[in-house]
Amino acid sequence: MKQFFKFMFASCLGSALMLIVLCLILIWSLGSSVSSDVTVKPQSVLYMNLNYDIPERTTEDDYLAILNSIQDDNMDLSGMNDIIGNIDAAADDPNISGIFLELSSIGTSSANIEEIREHLISFRKSGKFVISYAETMAQNAYYLATAGDEIYLNPDGMLDIRGMASQVMFYKHLLDKLDIEMQIIRGPNNKFKSAVEPYFLDKMSEANREQMEKLLNSIWYKIVCDITVTRGISINKINELADNLSLAFDTSVALEEHFVDGLLYRDEIIARIKTLAGIDNSQKINVLTNSQYAAAMPKPKAKSAKIAVIYANGQIFDGDGDDTKIGSTTLSKAIREARENKKVKAIVMRVNSPGGSALASEVIRREVELAKAVKPFIISMGSYAASGGYWISAEGDYIFADATTLTGSIGVFATFPNAKKFLNDRIGLTFDVAKTNKNADFGSIAEPLTPYQKATLQKYVVNTYDDFTSLVARTRGLRKSYVDSIGQGRVWSGVDAIGLGLVDELGGLDKAIAYAAKQANLTDYSIKEYPKQTDIIDMIMSGNLPEPYTKSLIKNRLGDNYTYFESFENITKLEGVQALMPYMIIQ
Fold it and tell me: Between these two residues, 126 and 14, which has the higher pLDDT value?
């Protein structure tokens, strides 16, 4: 009977998986037939609705793209690579009259917005229009909108400009209530390495508050200066209105102070776009989304010479990774493949990582070292490349970052929970152990670390921090004592990192690729992306769904609260000594 049920359940599972696959194939076939009809007609308008969590690159898996479209209201989840590529292509496309941005709140960092913004400003040099509209507009969306010619808001809408803040969640009182002690081991003088503060404090330390305020002010100043340049509004006026929340609840103030060019309803916006595109009011606008335009454009011919673009995105862990997390095995393999590919003449690694496992970071760094010995290896820092993210970047030949990139955080720590009182007193569990050696039970949560174990771990953390500072000193040509003075876990903005010697030049991925081509003496080349993206069919057949998809589902349900969920989830995955940035900033 047991075998009967076993085979019955296996058969049902197999049938269910096959049904899912067949449905995906059917949906893909329908989707392909629709997308194949897309043409770029004269006077077309490129429509960009960027109100989603923008990934670094668009998924190449048609089935996964369709799944994302089904479960997301947006229907277009293009990555940074396609968004920027489309803007550049549209500038030279005689059939594209302009770009219509519909922006409410963009789920990405200031650094990514900065890159898109620069390409929009460059697009305007073609003489084509960029127009933005929203019913309500968050300040990150407004920052991007200011790259355009005209900005419009619904008459009863909201322009939410109020400055920047970073809220940190502390677990101390929760752990106290549960009788759980988090045993913390930090590197020497790592007073700015605040990732561990939530475990033993109930508010920011003075050192952490100092670095947070400097970092926020550096990013905010860059944003405000950019707005001043394109909108002609003084820095003092922007800050005054932000302090008083004057723009948030009265759209007339936004109009009077020239933050927007008009208060219009959607039908009026459509009429305005027709006018700008030279379309008769009785005709429809041929609107193309990012994914439609990318599909309609002819694919560039593959060139013999290639530049590899390697995406290192997410927290760093040992083992396998995907588009949402860096696995040392997966990323190392990608770097090795690019190094061994004779057609690849240069490598650009795009880093978006707050760090993670120090050991995994070192495994990846070694592959960077091997690769740069045989071909140019350039780093492009995106939203953040801090702690372990900086560790894997430091070995590169040349480092690019955006002005608002979060980087540095040169520091390490280790955490070991002691749940003895919780287990014994709260839920009535006791433990005993038999062992062959004195420290055979090292790392058990049922007992606190012994003084010897804690001292041994402290020594390991100190040595790891010494390795980190030595690495940065060697690769950046700096004194080790100086690296320690700007290290100690402190996070810096990209613009500040230039002056500190941690970054070579401000610029996005396009500049990094152009620099790599110059170093390799290439004028005619194509891009080859690594690592290979997740194949959803293989994942489903193995009984799993890829993490990018499940992550997107959770985000849709939790909204802005997803940040807290992700923070807590990442904490539960920490193992060994960590080189991890203490926070992320979303404006």
Answer: 126
At residue 540 the predicted structure's pLDDT band, cuts being 50, 70 and 90, is low
Cβ–Cβ under 8 Å, residues 296 and 39? yes
Q: Are residues 252 and 381 in the same domain?
A: no
Q: Do 280 and 322 reside in the same domain of the chain?
A: no
- Give the whole-number percent of the chain exceeding pLDDT 90: 59
Q: Let me know the angle formed at the C-alpha of 251 by 247 and 254, rounded to the nearest 5 degrees.
A: 60
CA angle, residues 546, 550, 551, in degrees to nearest 5: 110
289 plus 314 within the same structural domain: no
β-bridge partners, 99: 46, 130
Peptide bond just before 188 cis, omega within 30 deg: no
Is residue 555 part of the annotated active site? The answer reads: no
**Cα–Cα distance, 466 to 20 (Å, whole number):** 51
Query: Of 109, 332, 361, 387, which one is the catalytic site residue?
Result: 387
In contact, 461 and 190? CB cutoff 8 Å: no
Catalytic position from the list 78, 97, 128, 193: 193
Per-residue pLDDT, 46: 96
Residue 526 is a catalytic residue: no
Q: pTM for the full model?
A: 0.84
Would you give the distance in Å from CA 239 to the centre of its chain? 28
